[in-house]
Amino acid sequence: MSPISDINKESLKNNFDVVGIGNAIVDVISHESEQFLKEFGLIKESMALIDEKTAIDLYNHMSPTIQTSGGSAANTMSGITSLGGSSSYIGKVRNDHLGDVFSHDIHAAGVHYSVKPSEQGQPTARSMIIVTPDGARTMNTFLGISTTLYKEDLDVSLIENSKVLYCEGYIWDVEATKDTIRSAIAIAKNAGRKISFTLSDSFCVLRHHQDWVDLVNGPIDILFGNEEEIQALSGCGSFTEAVEWIKGRVEIACLTRAAAGSVIVTEEKIIEIAAKPVEQIVDSTGAGDLYAAGFLFGYTRELDLETCGRIGSIAASEIIVHTGARPFSSLKEIVSSELHS
Amino acid sequence: MSPISDINKESLKNNFDVVGIGNAIVDVISHESEQFLKEFGLIKESMALIDEKTAIDLYNHMSPTIQTSGGSAANTMSGITSLGGSSSYIGKVRNDHLGDVFSHDIHAAGVHYSVKPSEQGQPTARSMIIVTPDGARTMNTFLGISTTLYKEDLDVSLIENSKVLYCEGYIWDVEATKDTIRSAIAIAKNAGRKISFTLSDSFCVLRHHQDWVDLVNGPIDILFGNEEEIQALSGCGSFTEAVEWIKGRVEIACLTRAAAGSVIVTEEKIIEIAAKPVEQIVDSTGAGDLYAAGFLFGYTRELDLETCGRIGSIAASEIIVHTGARPFSSLKEIVSSELHS
């Protein structure tokens, strides 16, 4: 594809519901057997960071692939616009083919995205995602140029004018982008905005354990994580204990449990939300990202927390019945037909 | 992705069941409303040839896309290997990103592919495929470098040593590749091999009507086409008349009718094959290509024609329940479990 012009299906707004910050990644997805994971020593359902050489080697052994834009926070921002909300994205690509693909797709989703593609340095990030027959995804990510998202790339007024800042835990894996996130959090906090954060991956939690406990005890207002991630963060042996641990540390914790639904924890209450059942999980990539999109869409509309969680479940259910982590259908239409059914 | 080495999951064989020749294309797929087709004046379910500028313009207006290798004959060859057969492919890409994607995917599918990527000229071909909510696909193809597949690119001994030559009608749209196909047909015919041909698209049939009637009356042994295509070729007002028209002109005609199944026509008999029902058609791209794969897999194993058709139906049913025209699952396993059920 050739470079994308500044098309944006939603006209630029002065205020956004959410601004997301994360690694700008193109997903390279193939369907493989469980045996494939064993042969390559891949830890099922985790995200491993790999270098460019390993990325090429793995790609050369993968079955035919599908390439489609990903990146956890970018998926979430695309979900918010699909629901009818407004969102903006901060993340860095190179001016190469995959960078063009990423830019096209995020603009096409109606997300405001104005970080200029880098004209030098490493290539655009890609994640080799192995989907096994049970729909589970195992990710192997080469971060490339996304590791060079610096404070200078932040649009201060954009962050100040968005109701919620959404930060991807994955971005903590690199020293430079960690500083960028800290700056973004400080800007949003000073402007009186809400800070939301996703724990991303249980191994990622373990790599940054103390930092993240400090974040949870500090600036984070809304925390997203799954069962394994919150247990890794809390150090608790059971989910019930982890729920007690997080209670009151953040304003709201949204804890997802795959088919078992999700639990929304505040200082006052614990709300259980059922997962929306699906016939068959084709590819679970993006389930957590879209749950966060649904929740934040509801939250920025000041809906009650149970409804926010239900929108999250509906959005997640759309993403897991097809390959790729961006919605195929208008989530707005799906939610409006299903929310009251 | 970086250039793919000469990996090939199937070891190179001296003999192939089928060698396919066609336009080497990467599919760029998005899901859009019926309204989108109207706005861009696209004729639903047809294939339109577009220039590079139009391709870029259309892409800029498409929703987030999925990119995955396509090309009608290439899809068929990938289907044959997934069924457990052996196949080879002839088609041309550039040494660019999409060319790398195409090469990776066809090698990863175990198809023998040895045409060197061109180091100059136009970019690799891409088809912008608009999938509407009913699963129908409307294709807009920029042929790029695929139009420069010359006689010199043909591996004569490869064609001589493959049981069946499979030619894509689409390739007839360009003068140079038309000559290449004629040469390939002559080589295969001289070696006593079977010639199969797919009508590809009803508009394509109309563009090349007399040439293709001559081919059908001449060298073609096995013809593939759908209802609209065979009516366009025969000039008959009904499918029944078209069946009578084709009878005896080719050894075998396989005529597909979407949900109504397929009809196999020989001089002696007409065999009706039911379509394998699916819950929901997500993307019909590749249905005809995979039907041809299943039929030719059975044919080259000398199975009876009804079984060949049933394998075609099963292979087609796998491809239409997900986005993209290459199988996600082993067709060999699906066929072995379903053929006798």
* Helix/strand order of chain A, N-terminal first: EEHEHEHEHEEEHEHEHHEHHEEEHHH
Structural class estimated from helices and strands of chain A: alpha/beta
Characterize the quaternary organization of these chains.
homodimer
Question: Runs of chain A with pLDDT <50, length 5+?
Answer: 1-13
Radius of gyration of chain A: 18 Å
- CATH topology of chain A, what is it called? UDP-N-acetylmuramoyl-L-alanine:D-glutamate ligase
Work out the count of structural domains of chain A.
1
Average pLDDT value of chain A? Answer: 93
The CATH superfamily of chain A turns out to be Ribokinase
Taking strands numbered 1, 2, ... along the chain, how are they ordered across the largest sheet of chain A?
6-5-1-9-10-11-12-13-14
**Overall outline of chain A:** globular
Instruction: Determine the most extensive contact between two protein chains.
Output: A-B, 40 and 40 residues
| Number of continuous helical runs of chain A | 13
Helix content of chain A: 25-40%
Query: Mind telling me the CATH class of chain A?
Result: Alpha Beta
